[in-house]
C-alpha cells in the first residue's frame, strides 16, 4: 500500500495514476476535480453528474470536455445508475453510450462496471463515496466500483474480484487496485446504524478504522475498510494504492456532499482500455 499520493494532476481538472500510466500504457484512468468547468453555483464548476439538479447543457459541456481530453467521445462513455448497492455489470460494445447523455439510459441498479473490451469509458460519479479502480494486468480487464458505506458493507470490491475469478480466471496477485479520493476518516462522522451494519466483517478490519466520539458518534475510515476487505480476497497489499485526498478537507478541489450539506456537484472516475494496446 502506498503512503504517498498516487494521483497527480495532469491538468487543473484531472488527476491521473501516473505509475499505472507508466506501467500499463494500454490503460486510460483518472478522476476529475471541480475545476475548469462551466457549471454555476452550487455546482461550480466541473460537475459531471446529471442527477443533482444542475443545468443539463452545462453538464454535457463538462462531459464533452472530459472525453475530448481523453481522446474519446460521449458515445464511448458508459454509466451505471448508482443506487448504493453492490450489483455489477459486464459492459460490452453494445452498451456504449448508455447514461452518457441522460440518466434514463444508464445501466439500472448497478454500482460496479467492468469490461475487457477496448474503447469503452467506464464512468461513475462521486462527492465523498469511495471510488475503487481495479485492473487485471495480465488479462487486461478493468473495472470501477462505487463504494459508499452501503456498498462497502455489501463488499462491492471483493464481489468484483470474485466475479473476475469466475468469469475470466483472474488471479488476485495479478489484480491492481487504486482507492480514489473520498471523504477520509478525519471527516466522516457516522452513527450506530452504520457501525452496526459492519457487523460480521469487524474481525477483518484494521485497528483504528473506527474512532469513538461522544454522543453515539464515530469517525469511520471507509478507504481503509475497502483496503482491508480487498486484502482478504488475496490481493497483495503492495498491489493496492490509497489516495490521500480527502474530499471534505479540500472543497477548493473536490465536491463534498457532507461539507456542502448535500447541494453540490459530482466528480467523475473513469477507466478504459485503449483501442490499440501498447506493448
TrEMBL record:
Cofactor(s) annotated in UniProt: Zn(2+)
Pfam families reported in the protein's UniProt record: Cu-oxidase_4 (PF02578)
Highest taxon in the source lineage: Bacteria
Keyword match Hydrolase: yes
InterPro entries listed in its UniProt record: Cu_polyphenol_OxRdtase, Cu_polyphenol_OxRdtase_sf, Cytotoxic_necrot_fac-like_cat
Entry keywords, A to Z: Hydrolase, Metal-binding, Transferase, Zinc
Record-linked Gene3D superfamilies: CNF1/YfiH-like putative cysteine hydrolases
TM region(s), chain numbering: none
Catalyzed reactions per annotation: inosine + phosphate = alpha-D-ribose 1-phosphate + hypoxanthine; adenosine + phosphate = alpha-D-ribose 1-phosphate + adenine; S-methyl-5'-thioadenosine + phosphate = 5-(methylsulfanyl)-alpha-D-ribose 1-phosphate + adenine; adenosine + H2O + H(+) = inosine + NH4(+)
Family assignment from sequence similarity: Belongs to the purine nucleoside phosphorylase YfiH/LACC1 family.
Protein's job: Purine nucleoside enzyme that catalyzes the phosphorolysis of adenosine and inosine nucleosides, yielding D-ribose 1-phosphate and the respective free bases, adenine and hypoxanthine. Also catalyzes the phosphorolysis of S-methyl-5'-thioadenosine into adenine and S-methyl-5-thio-alpha-D-ribose 1-phosphate. Also has adenosine deaminase activity.
PANTHER family, per database record: PURINE NUCLEOSIDE PHOSPHORYLASE LACC1, UNCHARACTERIZED PROTEIN YFIH
NCBIfam families xrefs: peptidoglycan editing factor PgeF
Name used for this protein in its record: Purine nucleoside phosphorylase
Species whose genome carries this gene: Caldalkalibacillus uzonensis
Taxonomic placement: Bacteria, Bacillati, Bacillota, Bacilli, Bacillales
Amino acid at each position: 500500500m502506498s503512503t504517498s499520493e498516487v494521483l497527480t494532476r495532469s491538468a487543473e481538472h484531472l488527476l491521473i495514476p501516473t505509475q499505472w500510466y507508466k506501467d500499463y500504457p494500454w490503460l486510460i484512468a483518472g478522476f476529475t476535480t471541480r475545476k475548469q468547468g462551466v457549471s454555476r453555483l452550487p455546482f461550480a464548476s466541473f460537475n459531471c453528474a446529471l442527477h443533482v439538479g444542475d443545468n443539463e447543457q452545462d453538464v454535457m459541456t463538462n462531459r464533452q470536455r472530459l472525453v475530448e481530453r481523453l481522446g474519446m467521445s460521449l458515445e464511448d462513455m458508459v454509466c451505471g445508475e448508482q443506487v448504493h448497492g453492490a450489483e455489477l455489470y459486464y459492459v460490452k460494445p453494445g452498451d456504449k453510450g448508455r447514461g452518457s447523455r441522460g440518466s434514463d439510459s444508464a445501466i439500472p441498479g448497478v454500482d460496479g462496471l467492468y469490461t475487457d473490451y477496448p474503447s469503452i469509458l467506464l464512468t461513475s460519479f462521486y462527492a465523498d463515496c469511495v471510488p475503487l479502480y481495479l485492473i487485471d494486468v495480465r488479462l487486461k480487464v478493468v473495472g470501477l466500483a462505487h463504494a459508499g458505506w452501503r456498498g462497502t458493507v455489501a463488499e462491492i470490491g471483493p464481489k468484483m474480484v470474485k466475479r473476475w475469478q469466475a468469469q475470466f480466471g483472474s488471479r488476485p496477485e495479478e489484480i491492481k487496485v487504486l482507492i480514489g479520493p473520498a471523504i477520509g476518516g478525519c471527516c466522516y462522522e457516522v452513527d450506530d446504524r452504520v457501525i452496526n451494519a459492519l457487523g460480521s466483517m469487524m474481525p477483518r478490519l484494521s485497528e483504528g478504522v473506527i474512532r469513538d466520539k461522544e454522543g453515539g458518534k464515530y469517525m469511520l475510515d471507509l478507504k481503509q475498510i475497502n483496503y482491508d476487505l480487498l486484502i482478504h480476497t488475496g490481493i497483495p497489499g503492495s498491489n493496492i494504492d490509497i489516495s490521500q485526498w480527502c474530499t471534505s478537507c479540500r472543497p477548493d478541489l473536490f465536491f463534498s456532499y457532507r461539507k456542502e450539506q448535500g447541494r453540490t456537484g459530482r466528480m467523475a472516475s473513469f477507466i478504459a482500455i485503449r483501442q490499440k494496446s501498447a506493448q
